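Agenda item 2: pyridoxal-5'-phosphate complex prediction
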Amino acid sequence: MNDIMKFDNELSIEKSRPSKRGLHFNCPACQTNIPASHLRKNEPKLPELSEFDAVRHFTRLSKYNFSVDTHFYPLGSCTMKYNPRINEEVSALEGFTSLHPMAMDENAQGTLEIIYDAQERLCRLCGMDDATLWPVAGAHGEYTGILLAKKYFSVRGEERDEIIVPDSAHGTNPATASMAGFKTVNLQSNAQGLLDLENLRKSLNPKTAVIMMTVPNTLGIFEKNIKAICDMAHQNGTLVYMDGANLNALIGIIKPGDFGIDMMHLNLHKTFSTPHGGGGPGAGGILVKKILSPYLPKPKVEKKDGKYFLSDDIPHSIGRIKAHFGNTQVLLRAYAYLLKHGPEEFAQIAENAILNANYVKASLEKIFPPYSSQYCMHECVLTPPEELLKNGIRTLDIAKRLLDYGFHAPTIYFPLIVHEAIMIEPTETESKETLDAFIAAMKKIKEEADKDPEILKNAPHTMPVKRLDEVLAARQPNIKW
Ligand SMILES: *Cc1c(COP(=O)(O)O)cnc(C)c1O
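Presented output:
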């Protein structure tokens, strides 16, 4: 943002001037052929703007934003990586975009084939047996997975109503467990940020349906006892759910199916490169082991004699979870990404994601102590040093100051178990130059905090809006019109 660009928060309706028009329909037929009964009585309450006014208005608004395409965006737990443009081209191909959602199978062969093949490839990549790509968000995938577990136990006649969720799990995990009607049993992590096996042993009981593991967990640490955890759960008849939204750290390196995961979701919009954030469309497909196949949602994409079709023939299906084909455009982008990278390249992606996170961590650990001293995976969790906290500097101040230096703030105050957490996920697509610039900005901010804490407390200084009252904004949004 340069200084010339003053913040203009006028709404388009406020810019409106009588009789300004974008498009003129001068053809007489447009006006006369519409029966009077279909014509509106009052003018619609729309802004009257020239086309140029409208273009400037929206282009200006878009520039007030931070985005992956304009700024380094190290938002932990979100995998804000570069989204290759070829994905956009693929998902915009007319054959896909003009497909009617109620199209007969024979007219939807291309889309069905892609969904089928994407499922197969994802299963292979993760060592799982079966899949559904209908869920439209990570949290939706979790919910679908837990409904499968519920059905699985009900068909077996087992009454299990507890789900174990370690405190290092993503917040959507306990929320999912409660939404699906289970009791959540919280497990405290040990000092290394890992699950304590003894604690787990004590918590497992005949009522435990599922244990939900975020791998790597929200501290950016790999659960090194994951195989033992799965074995212990299985001995108790408990299923293991893996929140695989952080697959960017593992893809191509390990297969969750190999260490005993029964079901998992993927955030295709994160790991498999769809622009996301701000509540945009996602895809949280789930992969399962054979034992859970009979419960998958309807319809299932099947293949017979070289033809693809949607089948409702799933004996104990939990039913439909989404109309039509899920968020097909996200699936198409994910598919383009899957085809572009073979298994070896995926391992390289994960390795570079891990390398970048450890590079940031190692470069900053002297001034911003990490939560854990061990190597992190694709993201690291840092904290402000004690002396800054004593001077009244908070993580929020550091995040706001980063905006002045042209960086989107990292995730802050998450994971909840880390006091004043700063969670940085650089992703594999950032260059060393960008990481060095970010590291330099963090160091500069630390110096500023030592010399003149007010700079931080009043940051950002260069943004069009300063500190918002976030609670008020959420409770009483000022939606002017
Ligand atoms: C992002 C994320 C989720 C939730 O995914 P949505 O698509 O936002 O619903 C769940 N778990 C983890 C670990 C995540 O990073």
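Discussion summary: The radius of gyration is 25 Å.
Owner for follow-up: CH.
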